[in-house]
Design goal:
alpha/beta; Rossmann fold; 6 helices; 6 strands; NAD(P)H-dep_reductase; FMN_Rdtase-like_dom; Flavoprotein-like_sf; flavoprotein; oxidoreductase activity
Length: 204
Amino acid sequence: MKLLIISTSQRPDSQSAKVGRYIAESSFSSPHAMRYASIHHLELCQFNLPFWDGEEGNKGEQWPEIEQSVDEADALVLITPEWGGMASPLLKNFLLMCTREETAHKPALLISVSSGIGGTYPIVEVKMNALKNNKLVPIPDHLIIRNVSNVLNAVPEGARDIALRERVQYSLYMLHQYAQALAPIRQQHAGQAYPKQQEYCYGM
C-alpha cells in the first residue's frame, strides 16, 4: 500500500509542510501494523499549477507528476492551513483538478492547521462541498492542529503536544484500516462496474 501526504499552504517553509513532514515520519515509526510500501509527501506550493478552468488539457506541465502520485496512492492525507476561515485555494484547486479515476473510493485523512484556536471551518468546507465529484472518502477522524507553531516540533513540549501526537497515531492507524477495507471495493469496481456507470459519475 502507498500513502500520499499533500500539504497545501501557498507559502514555502510553512507550518502545514511541517505537519506533513511529521505525519510522514510518524507513519514510518508507528508501532501499529500499518506498513506502507512507500510514503510520499508533496508540497503543492513547489509546483506551478494553473487555476483549474474545467479543461482536462489545461492542467500544466507538472500535473502528470502529481496525477501519478495520486493515482498510485491507496490513502491520502490532505493538510490545509486556515485562511479567513477557509481551506487554502491550493487545496481547492487541487481537488478540482483531480478526477474520480485517480481518487474515487480512496480514504483521506483531513487535517486543518491554525496559528490560533481555530481550524474547524476548513474541515467543514472540504467535507461539505469539495469531494462530490472526485469521490474521495474522508474518514471520520479528522485532525485540527491548533497553535501549530508550538506543537509537532522536533522535541515534544508539554502534555498537550504529547496528547496530540498520540491522537495523530490513532488517526493514521484508522486511515490505514480504511485503506485496507476500501482497496477490494476499488478492485471489484474496476473489474465489474455498475451498468451505465457514466450516467452516475457525478455526485448529487
